[in-house]
Amino acid sequence: MDSQALTIELDDEQFEAVLGDNLLSSLLSQGADVRYGCRAGACGACRLYDASNCESILSCQTTVASSMSLTQQTLAESSTFSVLSNVSLNDDSIELVLLGPSDDSFGDRVFVSLPFKETGEEANFEHAHFYECMALNPAGAPLKLVLQKAELNEKDWLRALALSAEDQVAVQLSTGVRKGRLLFEMDIADAPVVVISSPGNTMFESYWREALLDFTPNFVGHFTLFDNTDLTLSLADDALIAFLQEALTSSGGTSLQLIYHGQSVSAKDWAMLLRPLRVHLNQLHFVR
Ligand code: FES
């Protein structure tokens, strides 16, 4: 086996890899801060971009064949959007509706930055941090996003709370990707569907319900995984199994489709849970 040492540059950091390594495993084993989810090529969470040719790769599906220069940043252009509304959903999350030049719709990923601003001053986005969010609006409607306290630094969370109509935020839109394809690509038209969320994604339930109504009259239900650091135990919880059994019964033998909105549970763990229920992994769709 060739043990040639290669260099992986990821944004401003350098990592080593050996020819034939799995790229994601190699980065994680060296403490790289990279996103991932299913580790099976299904959820897209581990997408990285080749800095030399701008092509995207799924790191969990990539075998290291040469040194690489990669970035986690999507190629994006930044535009200024006006706030149409800012509604508190609970103590830890707000819904923003934004007006600007976007053709993003449900499931697309956009990046939002909050302005530094003193009273009476122009919004200033210099050095501002961009937060990744999922577009929740239907096609053609103003961009709708949820910002969560847990994902923002303290100052940005206070800035987000203070936003009011006609304030401005900066939005980076992904370029070169097909927009609004998430539900089409799951191929769930008219199928019975359940959504299973990680604890941090519970507040998206009503958005899923609304978006799925356009695709299927068979939205069977929503389940939130327990906030448990032992994900295998969390998955095996009796309440989840009972929920799935009931959903399978009510879907009457038609192939039940499962959408997992989270990143922590791997495809392997899902397969262990779903096998005894006779649910195949191709009925499970990952959304980060
Ligand atoms: S596609 Fe790579 S982690 Fe899901």
Automatic annotation (TrEMBL):
PROSITE patterns to which the protein is assigned, alphabetical: 2FE2S_FER_1, 2FE2S_FER_2
Highest rank taxon of the organism: Bacteria
Domain 2Fe-2S ferredoxin-type: 4-78
SUPFAM superfamilies linked: 2Fe-2S ferredoxin-like
InterPro entries reported for this sequence: 2Fe-2S_ferredoxin-like_sf (IPR036010), 2Fe-2S_ferredoxin-type (IPR001041), 2Fe2S_fd_BS (IPR006058), Beta-grasp_dom_sf (IPR012675)
A single MF term (Gene Ontology): 2 iron, 2 sulfur cluster binding
Name this protein carries in UniProt: Ferredoxin
Species of origin: Marinomonas foliarum
